Amino acid sequence: MIRVFLVDDHEVVRRGVAALLESEDDIEVVGEAGTAESAIARIPALRPDVAVLDVRLPDGSGIDVCREVRSTTPGLACLMLTSFADDDALFTAVMAGASGYVLKQIHGSDLIGAVRTVASGQSLLDPQTTASMLARLRDQATRKDPVEALSEQERHILELIGEGLTNRQIGERMFLAEKTVKNYVSNLLSKLNMQRRTQVAALAARMKTDRDR
Fold first, then answer.
1. What is the rounded CA–CA span in Å between residue 90 and residue 104?
2. DSSP 4-47
3. What would the pLDDT profile of 167-179 be if each residue is shown by its tens digit?
4. Which among 91, 128, 158, 181 has the fewest CB atoms less than 10 Å away?
């Protein structure tokens, strides 16, 4: 018997999928949730074989649920169910450990087959999708850290932005004209491929957290 847990914020969708799956002799729906928080709390206790997860939830993402519950429920297969064909979401789902990714427009019989496929330990990713995933992984592996391209002065400014300092305050701290700091910040944004100062501040905060670990 394949034990399935359903996660979707639309009750009508959950009921429809549950009725479809329960009509099969070898599938049992052991639980449901409409939010990420509820799913993360309930799945480890029920220990299903498959979790069918909506990608978009009101308090988070089914992908985050997949990542979280797979760390607490060994052997769980996650099947992502979504209304949107999104390459970024597909890639993130695979990296989170999802075994399959199907659209809600899927035929009922195909969804049942998908549940059986991932429950047996197989992946639902077709060869073309797998090739795309591998190419993207290789690209990420070979891409250099953009922070490495920053000069020592720019790195210092990056840290000061992370502390919440304005251009004027950074100039006073580093004995530079405010206009000079502004030019440094523009170059820094360009090298990091960012558009907003808040993105730089977030990066600086993350780097500081990594150093403090």
1. 14
2. EEEE-S-HHHHHHHHHHHHTSTTEEEEEEESSHHHHHHHHHHH-
3. 999 999 999 899 8
4. 128
